[in-house]
Amino acid sequence: MKTPIIEFNNFSFRYESLVEKTLKNINLKIYPNEKVLILGPSGSGKSTLSYCINGLIPHSFSGEIQGSCKVHDQPIESNTIYGLSHYVGTVLQDSDLQFVGLTVGEDIAYLMENKNTKREIMLDKVLESAKRVGMEKYLKHVPFSLSGGQKQKVSIGGVLYDSVDILLFDEPLASLDPQTGKDAIDLIDNLNKDTGATIVIIEHRLEDVLYRAIDRIILMEEGEIVADLTPNQLLATDLLPKYGIREPLYLSAIKAFGGTLNPADTLDNLDTLDLNPYKNEIATRLSHFNPKTIQAHVGRPLFEVSNVSFSYRDTDALSDVSFTIYEKERIALIGENGAGKTTLAKILTGALRPISGTVQFEGKNYLNYSIKELAQHIGYVMQNPNQMLVKDIVKEEVKLALKLRQISEEIIDARVESVLKVTDLYSLRNWPIDSLSYGQKKRVTIASMLVLDPKCLILDEPTAGQDYRHYKEVMAFVDNLNKDYGLAIIFITHDMHLAMEYTDRALVLSNGRLIADESTYAVLSNPDLLKQASLKETSLSQLANALDINGKHLIEAFVNYEKEGDTYG
User: Fold this and answer.
1) How many Cβ atoms sit within 10 Å of the Cβ of residue 528?
2) Tell me: the pLDDT tens digits for 163-188?
3) pLDDT tens readout for residues 85-101
4) How confident is the model over 525-541, as pLDDT tens digits?
5) How far is CA 75 from CA 65, 71, 216, 262, in A?
6) 260-283 exposure pattern, b = at least 16 Cβ within 10 A, e = fewer
7) Which residues pair with 360 in a beta bridge?
8) Half-sphere exposure of residue 396: CA atoms within 13 angstroms, side-chain side
9) Helical H segments across 405-550, by residue range
10) Pairing label, strands 216-221, 198-202
11) Which pTM was predicted?
12) Is 71 exposed, middle or buried (0-12, 13-18, 19+ CB in 10 A)?
């Protein structure tokens, strides 16, 4: 019988600063060459479990340990972070936090330099690691100038130098576009097969991870392991919705349209799943669904963008882009990393101005407005709320924009109180920002924009890094802003489910060009268009193709089912 490479026995851990235990009675064995997914909602203990594996607990984060945790048959307390680094390579969610070299080659070589590795040996190992992750052509590039997917590959290359036995990936898909995410999962799978490394993935995007086979899924909740099953076994239970994890969309659709899943089927792989038992029932149910007539634009034009181009030095970021956004619309701005989405958003806010072409805001040339004046009407909420928050107290952060405009205290207090109540932050108005959860910080950044009474909100990856439960909370809140306050909402997103469920229209960018401007359902059911934009086809579209059903019809029916609960006969 194999000896576990990672072993927890009746293990509990309490951080020094906390009263309650974060991990409780963990019993887990992970064996050499296994590929294991640690799954669970935010706050379930996933990250703390990973800190035990790579030695951050107890050597960086002190606290009380009960039971035992062994890596390579050595108790973590008797080793060091440096000692464990010979066995465990960690790839962080934010690659920027992991870079220390001025070039890709220097970054991959960093640990070898610290070990006084001979130069000729080090150069060979750097090249070998770079080739393994497909970055050998970028050895002289600055890591921070690379795309999200390339940065991740450099991070992996930096931990492969010593042929580590365990590779630990912390939310590897969080900042990647769908196609790059697929490439990342392919790379992880190849490392598992080619090097024999044990793979531990921490992620809540279950369907995306299951793009390649996983041996086991460890489901956590409130610091405990609630399931240790194969993917098929887990998908056949009701545990995922119970613990706030989104199951693969194709399984949700089969259930929605009357299918009863067979636990004996290959539920974790749509390509090999036998759909014959579900085909007639799904077709019958869909025949009772009548798509809603999409209304023509009822509001006035908010933005009119005509033939806009923009370049960074010698690099074209946008080329001849034209579209109109109307009042109260919900728009998905989608495309691969580097397609021009953020540049376009900065142009709409006035932070960048077109090199050629025109932008009109409410019928007037927006070059007549200053950035400050545009900010009064257009709120831009960054992906990471920590990059926007500058005050210590919630109420003071929400007040800031009004204070800078020298508005009277009486008006400021009235507006801030109203916005804090709308965003459900009033009870937290005197709380320190640092004490808030990620989702609460996100709401504070939105509140700081709403206080200016804008006409449009641009949200950059509003659900990135959030589990399904928090995703639903954030999106329900934003959707209500659109309905109740008439705000136009522009989502910059890689999340095709967000686009599918919460937007009416999609603007698709590829290499700085607008390649589609049509209904979100039409975009997501067009495999050729998605491929051109390096986006991932949703499993709903794949299910429709496999069943020979109109993809747009199935996607729209499924979204309507999720909102209305209508089973269509």
Assistant:
1) 8
2) 689 999 888 877 677 777 788 888 88
3) 888 988 877 667 778 88
4) 888 898 888 887 888 88
5) 11, 7, 24, 42
6) eeeeebebbebeebeeeebeeebe
7) 304, 365
8) 9
9) 409-422, 438-450, 468-485, 496-502, 520-524, 527-532, 539-547
10) unpaired
11) 0.80
12) buried
Q: 527, exposed or middle or buried, with CB in 10 Å at 0-12, 13-18, 19+? A: middle
Picking from 375, 367, 362, the residue whose alpha carbon sits closest to that of residue 302 is 362
Q: Do the beta carbons of residue 256 and residue 249 sit within 8 Å?
A: no
- Cα torsion 175, 176, 182, 184: sign: negative
Q: What is the pLDDT of residue 12?
A: 96
Q: What amino acid is encoded at 48 in this protein?
A: T
CA distance 42 to 58: 22
Nearest 5 degrees, angle CA 533-CA 343-CA 302? 95
pLDDT digits (tens, 9 = 90+) for 381-405: 887 787 889 998 999 999 998 888 8
Beta bridge partners of residue 459, listed in sequence order: 381, 491
Side-by-side strand order, sheet with 456-460: 378-381, 456-460, 488-492, 330-334, 505-510, 513-519
Put the strands of the sheet holding 88-91 in their side by side order.
88-91, 166-170, 198-202, 35-39, 216-221, 224-229
- Report which of 524, 512, 518 is spatially closest to residue 331, judged by C-alpha positions: 518
What are the pLDDT digits (tens) for 29-52?
999 999 999 999 877 889 899 999
Number of H helices, E strands in the chain: 23, 20
Is residue 514 within 8 A of residue 488, CB to CB? The reply is: no
- Pair 170, 202: CB distance under 8 Å: yes
Alpha-carbon distance of 388 to 401, in angstroms, equals 12
Start-to-end CA distance of the chain, whole Å, equals 53
* Confidence at residue 168, expressed as pLDDT on a 0 to 100 scale: 92
Total residues found in the chain within this entry: 569
- Count Cβ atoms below 10 Å from residue 335 Cβ, excluding itself: 28
How far apart (Å, rounded) are the C-alpha atoms in residues 463 and 82?
35
Q: How far apart are CA 43 and CA 49, in angstroms?
A: 11
The number of beta carbons lying within 10 Å of the beta carbon of residue 418 is 14
Looking at this protein, which amino acid is placed at residue 420?
L
- Contact between 58 and 76 under an 8 Å Cβ cutoff? The reply is yes
Q: Residue 375: pLDDT band by 50, 70, 90 thresholds?
A: confident
Strands in 137-256 per DSSP E: 166-170, 198-202, 216-221, 224-229
Distance between CA atoms of 440 and 433, rounded to whole angstroms? 9
Residue 141, pLDDT > 70, answer yes
CA distances from 30 to 163, 195, 215, 224, 231 (A): 18, 17, 10, 16, 16
Would you tell me how many other CB atoms lie within 10 Å of the CB of residue 426?
15
